[in-house]
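Chain A, query sequence.
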Amino acid sequence: MDGTHILATIFRRCFSGCRIMSRFSIVLPVSRGNRQPNPIQRFEDTLASVLRSRPRQAQVIVVHDGSYEDPHGLGSEIDWIVETSSNLASQFDLGVAASHGDLIVLIRPGVELDEGWESSLEEAFEDPQVGSLTPLIVPSFRPGRMTAAGVSTNAAGTRRLLGTQQPISNRSLQKLKPLGPSSHLAVYRRTVLSAIGRLGCLTDDVYLDVEVALSLRTLGFTNVLCRDTIATVESEEGILAESNRPHGCTAERSLYRYTRHGQSSTLARTLMDVAKSPLQPWRLSHGFQRLAAKRERLADQRFKQHLAVVKNTESWRETTVTEDAPHTTRRRAA
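Chain A, predicted structure.
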């Protein structure tokens, strides 16, 4: 795909005029830590698909490190935000802060959208209890099976990517119960994310989607698997490699922040890690780090209290969240 030609064509087709309140804010983070081949080409392909298929007046936000110089002259159509941190959660925080749409779409380089992707999303969010929506991601070379259909966790907090290599059928989709969408393509209510506050100092790139999903569940919102919204990827390698990356310390910290059904005791999980250490060497160091992480546990407890305040404040959807928590900002929820 010729990114230069496509972006130039889209720029000519884009409407002009003043900005008005949009239904969607589409956040596209560009991380310096991206190890995938041709990162600029993958970013431009994703950006081209977003501009080509976006609903009218949708806001497009690109968060990058300042090295992208906008060679296609799209500055008037896109909100460019510079973030020196390569942390995905920090980039996402800035995107949320700059957004003004009712719904936030997080899409990462490599994922491409098709025309009409927004129609099923708006219908799903008519239910006020729906806080997030999980689209399907499929490989372009084999659209009959899934690359990702959201994420979940086990009792130890380990992130699990759902739907990988499974066929798209009613039977397989009925078995999937995602906790939330994958960070490669996710849709959230902006008011909920604004009320939660900053996540950049709480989690890592891999665990961001689980962190948001657990926060939404704590606040009483549900997630919906949307079968009709399907995005494609040219290569599955990045998504699958990330799903296998260790994140034990982050997972353990999340157990202190949220009420987890069926979670085992700290001692039991430590013994499990030590027992499995010959197979996964990172587990042994993870076990020792976990036992010594008192400072982190204190911060996690405060964040848990912050979520409790948000949940119990009936007017948080319309008013400013006033309770402070570690690494959170005061942000208007409307």
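The longest strand covers residues 222-233. Residues 120 and 126 are 10 Å apart (CA to CA).
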